[in-house]
Amino acid sequence: MAINNTQIAKDVLAAIGGKENIVFATHCITRLRFTLKDKSIPNGDEIKKIPGVLGVNIAGDQYQIIIGQNVPKVYSALCKEAGIAEEAAIDENLDQPKENLTLKSIGSKILDYLSGSMTPIIPAMLGAAMFKTIQVLFGPDMLKLFSETSDFYLLTNFVYNAFFYFLPIYLGFTAAKKVGLNQLVGAFLGGCLLVPGFVTLASTEGASFAVYGIPARMMTYGQTVLPIILIIPVAKVVWDFFAKYIPDMLSTVFTPFLTMVVMVPLVYSVLGPLGGYAGDLIGNGLLSFGNIGGFLAVAVVAGLWEFLVMTGMHQVLIVFGITSMVQTGADKFVLTAGGLATWAAFGMALGAFLRLRDKDEKALALGYFVSGILGGVTEPVLYGIGFKYKKPFIALIIGGFIGGIYAGITGVGTYVMGATNFLAILGFVGGGTANLINGVIAVLLSFTISAIVTFVIGFPKENKQ
Hints:
Layout: H1 5-15, E1 22-27, E2 31-36, H2 44-48, E3 55-59, E4 62-66, H3 71-82, H4 103-118, H5 122-138, H6 151-164, H7 167-179, H8 183-194, H9 196-203, E5 210-211, E6 214-215, H10 226-245, H11 248-311, H12 314-328, H13 334-355, H14 359-375, H15 379-389, H16 392-410, H17 433-457
Antiparallel strand pairs: 1-2, 2-4, 3-4, 5-6
Helix pairs in contact: 1-3, 4-7, 5-6, 7-8, 7-10, 8-10, 8-11, 10-11, 11-12, 11-13, 11-16, 13-14, 13-15, 13-16, 13-17, 14-15, 16-17
């Protein structure tokens, strides 16, 4: 039942007209990307029928075939079959055409910036979060295997805070890379928010400080997201201005220096405070919205979350959810709803596996389930099951919605930004035993109901067992 990557490569190569029709071939995280001599040769409908192919997309002059997580192996097999050299994987968005500035394109660029800044830090975030999870699970809050004064309790705190407290520095680095600013300058700007002297002043009641005579807002920025997110694009504009007009022989010294001269008052007196206030507003706003909307707010987002994933809109909600979590200690709305939706997608894959008759389709559905439950990736099941058969999307919505209702009623909170696979339930640990139990029940509701509804109504009669 394993996926035959070599066979997928052979079938795709034949469908696009063979190696003679390839001008250039590369891949990204999920797609094979071709520049073809004759774009009329491939038949998109036929390519979609190839086992292992999730879809087809055309972007400008590029013909894209959606494969999923195993695309590097398929690409390698295709290059070997065609006798062409392998190219390095590219960024998902490098092939986007230039757009005129409209409200839509501006919104898209903002989402892309937020996504590109946040996504690279997720592995480190998950690693730090697991230490906090271990502390809560085995420490004095639950199993009581060690006390608050033990070295191990302190150690888990150290490791957790080593990431989350210094979050502005890490985000400064990744956001700078996204906009094309020197990455260490980005980290430097994040460090300005956390320098011990300023933190001490900001924590002292009645203390004041001025930058070139401009009063600075006395705020602490540990564990914040939005201040550095606002700072980096402005720094990029300032950097580019000086880089353009300063002679090359002087640029190495004076471009970074003059950039910092301009940015320092903006960091302490304008952009930093603005981001801090916005973060508080967003965190409290999400908390209020969740309270006002009650369980229905969580249920609606859980039911529709995966459709936001397919448009990329979920990235901005994740930023807001993380902001809420680090500002208030927990998120009982966005992150909880998104997690339940993910489990509903896993349930959709399992329901499809149990119901489908064709052995190849069953094998693919099982692959989607395993890659989801272990790897935390939902896109293969969304494209391979949802878009292909349509009705399983009904199950996805129902499963997420019902799990969201239970989570909203019982006040389930996500206390640690955890994994998106089966370990995601550990994100509920921080709220204590009751929160963990209710979180697991909500997960099981989303997963089980989605699987059952997919099994019952998800497929045409000819595809059923």
